[in-house]
Write a structure and sequence with these properties.
The structure holds two protein chains of two kinds. Chain A is α/β, with parallel strands linked by helices. Chain A has 15 helices and 15 strands. In chain A, α10 (288-301) packs across α14 (416-426). By secondary structure, chain B is of the alpha/beta class. Chain B contains 13 helices and 15 strands. Chain B has helices spanning 8-18, 33-42, 56-68, 79-94, 122-126, 143-160, 170-173, 241-256, 259-262, 283-296, 314-321, 338-344, 364-370; strands spanning 4-7, 23-26, 49-52, 73-77, 99-105, 136-138, 163-169, 176-179, 225-227, 265-268, 275-280, 302-306, 308-310, 326-331, 350-355. A seven-stranded mixed beta sheet of chain B has the order 3-2-4-5-7-6-13, with helices on both faces. Chain B starts with a strand and ends with a helix. Chains A and B meet through β2, α2, α4, α9 and α10 of A and α3, α4, β8, β9 and α10 of B. β2 (70-73) of chain A pairs parallel with β9 of chain B.
Chain lengths: 465, 374
């Protein structure tokens, strides 16, 4: 129950007459709807400071300022979003959103999502089958064949069942009533007291446009309901845990889920005396980016600054994955690598993406490549390594660590122990175990040097074009 | 104090938490999504709420309302999301809502290149919504600045009761760097001025135009009102032209008159230099290399790096321009902020743009070449 015991004098009304009469057309259903909302509040005797009336654009949105409660008047079709924001921020408030049928069209997704989430606001729809404020255009609830200013030959669209839509989206409490029904105040009061999301679809008349063009009166309204097989009354009453309560409970069930900080103290020396650019070109799923991060963290353990930029397609598990690492004894300003010092080519995907860059590499660059790949002609020194074969033995998700370890061993930028420290400190023990093996294997590959026929310092033969 | 290897998006989340952010709503979008992930983890730890909304419009709706209910709020997106934020940014201006909006810019227009960098939303941010009222926008160049400026964005939002943009980019948001966040000096935290308990609450009360009205939270001590419509100081609708003009003058004055107070920049001016480079965001880091290279060749050069883009730090810009013959403005767009530099440059000063929008950074060599510094 949102209703509170009255602490002060009884509230006889929640409306003020200081702004004069309501601004609605003579006979407009909004007069009765607004009165019913006031009467529902009187019935519940809520503290006006703990009630927020949220409206948006449309004739019904003119009414919030006639209430003595808090009032929030926002953009067309978005009252549900503001009501949810208020309720999420202050779950103790009673938040009532008002909307027209027009707002249900433009803001339809918010209706679906508030119902699905079960955020404990009350939504009251003043449903008069057209846009009254802008000249009687048809809306999402306009019946088929109806005449409106935008259906000159009768509406060819079908009407949306707002209640059915809310129910399908999982609403906990849904009712339909009309401005002519005696129980409207009770239905609204009942909706307001629901702990979860509650919606009331209130059928009414727009006397300026819809009712006059379509000869709609009380009798025709009931006939329309019957013809559409739409029911009145409380259609769904299936309470379930309100969003904020569930949110808090879910969080508290997982204490300590926060990710740890990966702090790095300098423990090793490096031989790096200028900015070094390293590119690793492989495939998505080869842990290229995480291996690059570990390598950069190892450089930081060795007193260096580091940056890492990644290049990958919008899909995650397919195509290339390229990481660019800069390590430097000084602050790194420009984070692109125009002239790499080391270029690691691990897979065909990486080669495809990086091929044009490899062809332009200077002789000062060393390329470490999986030995089965055919590299383009380049001035760079090429070291071919059995990366795939080694990864098959150690663990295929470690191929990037193997390649980086081989490069590190040959380049002596900083000790392999720094790489091991990063792996052991920042990876889960099972993963770290495999990557330490990969580090050793990569180091060993480099130490085989030119003696191993699989490690060739000769430039690669040109790729046939 | 120890260094970490962090991406800008994590630094932004940490900066927000350092500023006591306790409400976040956002919708996934590359390259800003990781901010959503971090905030979903961090915010409930301080008793707050973070939610993935159904779209960008709902993200803004949730945030504006939560801010008016007393929360310190942030949302994060990229260019396409800012397009969808647009109408609600106007609502936040209209209601004088303190909130922080992160834009991790990417290559546009439209979907553009989701995983590629650009800084093409500079004037879009200035004119982000109908009506053309002034906005506040800060632009970081490093992961450390992403942290610091996010924190400062909260302070500005609270102090000026205004939405504040952080214009970062993919090149900062998802680039990792060595950084010690704890070593970054931050100013004291600013909280919004709240209305006195006694008396009736006027949601937009001011005597002088530039005064920032005290705020009373929804659900607090007063009856609160908020409206998207043209209104007076009571937040009731008005159609009186003189009142409407006064409110517009108020929104404008509170930002524009504070421009000097909000001006954040780094200047490296060399006496006798005939060339000044004005830059911001990621490209200011290429400029730092350019300046080093040019000086190594024995040539004098000055640099002004802007962290506050809106309102334009005109005083600092005019001062740095004194005595120079040429101003180079490199940008990862087709020359947006250059429009501001051109209007401020003394007659006879040459303003040269280095414009690039092909998803790759502008290199120091390109700045030197196009800027005539090679």
């Amino acid at each position: 129950m949102n209703a509170k015991e009255p602490t002060t004098a009884r509230h006889e009304t929640y409306m003020t007459d200081k702004l004069g009469p309501l601004p609605f057309c003579p006979g407009c259903g909004h007069h009765g709807l607004v009165k019913s909302i006031d009467q529902a509040l009187v019935k519940l005797q809520l503290d006006p400071k703990e009630v927020v009336l949220v409206t948006d654009i449309g004739c019904i949105g003119l009414c919030d300022r006639y209430f003595t409660t808090n009032a929030f008047h926002g953009l067309h079709g978005r009252s549900i979003t503001y009501a949810c924001g208020l309720k999420l921020a202050r779950p103790e408030l009673t938040v009532i959103a008002l909307k027209g049928d027009g707002g249900c069209g433009i803001g339809g997704t918010h209706l679906l999502n508030v119902a699905r989430r079960n955020i404990g606001i009350t939504l009251i729809v003043g449903n008069n089958f057209n846009y009254g404020m802008t000249g009687g255009q048809h809306s999402v609830t306009t019946p088929t064949e109806a005449m409106t200013s935008t259906t000159p030959w009768g509406n060819v669209e079908g009407p949306m069942d707002l209640c059915g839509t809310a129910v399908a989206a999982g609403a906990a409490w849904v009712a339909r009533t009309s401005i002519f029904d005696k129980d409207i105040t009770d239905v609204i009061a009942q909706a307001i007291t629901q702990p979860g999301f509650a919606m009331v679809d209130v059928w009414e008349l727009c006397t300026a446009y819809y009712a006059s063009r379509n000869k709609l009166r009380k009798k025709e309204l009931d006939e329309l309901l019957a013809s559409l097989n739409f029911k009145k009354g409380v259609l769904v009453d299936k309470p379930r845990e309100e969003y904020s309560a569930h949110y808090r409970r879910a969080y508290e069930a997982h204490p300590g889920a926060a990710r740890p900080r990966h702090s790095i103290e300098v423990q090793y020396d490096s031989t790096v005396d200028q900015q070094i650019g390293i590119v690793i070109a492989g495939s998505a799923g080869q842990k290229i980016r995480s291996a690059a991060t570990l390598f950069a963290q190892a450089a930081m353990f060795s007193g260096l600054d580091a940056t890492q930029k990644d290049d990958y397609p919008i899909t995650v598990m397919t195509g290339h994955s390229i990481a660019e690492i800069i390590v430097s004894p000084e602050r790194i300003d420009y984070t692109a690598i125009d002239s790499p010092d080391y270029f690691l080519v691990i897979s065909a995907d990486g080669l495809k993406r990086a091929g044009p860059r490899i062809a332009k590499l200077p002789e000062t660059c060393t390329v470490y490549a999986e030995q089965t790949l055919e590299l383009p002609e380049t001035k760079a020194r090429i070291v071919r390594l059995p990366l795939n074969e080694t990864a098959k033995q150690v663990g295929k998700l470690s191929i990037a660590v193997i390649a980086l370890a081989a490069m590190l061993e040959e380049s002596t930028l900083f000790p392999a122990a720094a790489f091991a420290t990063a792996i052991n400190k920042f990876q889960k023990s099972k993963v770290a175990e495999v990557n330490i093996k990969a580090l050793d294997a990569g180091t060993e590959l480099a130490n085989r040097g030119g003696r191993d026929p699989r490690v060739s310092p000769e430039p690669a033969s040109p790729q046939p074009s | 104090m120890a260094r970490e290897f962090l991406e800008g998006n994590e630094a932004i989340a940490r900066g927000a938490m350092q500023a006591n952010c306790d409400f976040f709503a956002g919708y996934p979008i590359t390259p800003a999504s990781s901010i959503l992930h971090y905030m979903l983890e961090l915010v409930p730890q301080v008793g707050g709420t973070a939610i993935q909304a159904e779209d960008e419009i709902a993200s803004m709706g949730f945030c504006i309302a939560a801010a008016m209910a007393g929360r310190k709020v942030m949302t994060a997106t990229s260019g396409p999301g800012i397009s969808l934020y647009s109408e609600n940014v106007g609502l936040a201006q209209m209601g004088e809502t303190p909130m922080v909006i992160i834009n991790i810019q990417r290559q546009g227009p439209a979907t553009g290149s989701a995983t590629k960098g650009a800084e093409g939303d500079i004037q879009f941010t200035r004119w982000v919504t109908s009506g053309g009222l002034p906005v506040i926008a800060l632009s970081p160049a490093t992961v450390g600045e992403a942290y610091e400026l996010t924190y400062r964005a909260f302070n500005l939002a609270e102090q000026y009761r205004s939405p504040v943009f952080l214009l970062a980019s993919k090149e900062i948001g998802v680039t990792k760097e060595s950084v010690d966040l704890d070593a970054i000096e931050l100013p004291p935290l600013v909280e919004r001025q709240r209305a006195a308990s006694a008396g009736e609450y006027l949601p937009h009360a001011f005597q002088q135009l530039a005064e920032v009205p005290p705020i009373s939270d929804f659900g607090g001590e007063h009856i609160a009102r908020f409206t998207t419509s043209t209104h007076d100081q009571t937040a009731y609708l008005t159609t009186k032209p003189d009142v409407i003009q006064q409110m517009i003058d108020h929104y404008t004055a509170k930002i524009d008159e504070a421009a000097d107070d909000m001006a954040l920049y780094k200047q490296d001016l060399e006496a006798g230099a005939d060339t000044l480079i004005i830059s911001y965001g990621i490209i200011s880091r290429s400029v730092m290399v350019t300046v080093k290279n040019v000086r190594a060749r024995g040539r004098k050069i000055s640099s002004l790096i802007l962290q506050t883009l809106w309102p334009v730090p005109e005083k600092a810009i005019r001062s740095a321009m004194q005595g120079v013959k040429r101003i180079i403005v490199p940008e990862m767009n087709m020359g947006q902020y250059r429009l501001e530099i051109e209007r401020l440059a003394p007659p006879g000063t040459q303003v040269i743009g280095v414009d690039k929008m092909n998803t790759s950074l502008i290199s120091p060599a390109e700045i030197e070449s196009v800027g005539g510094l090679a």
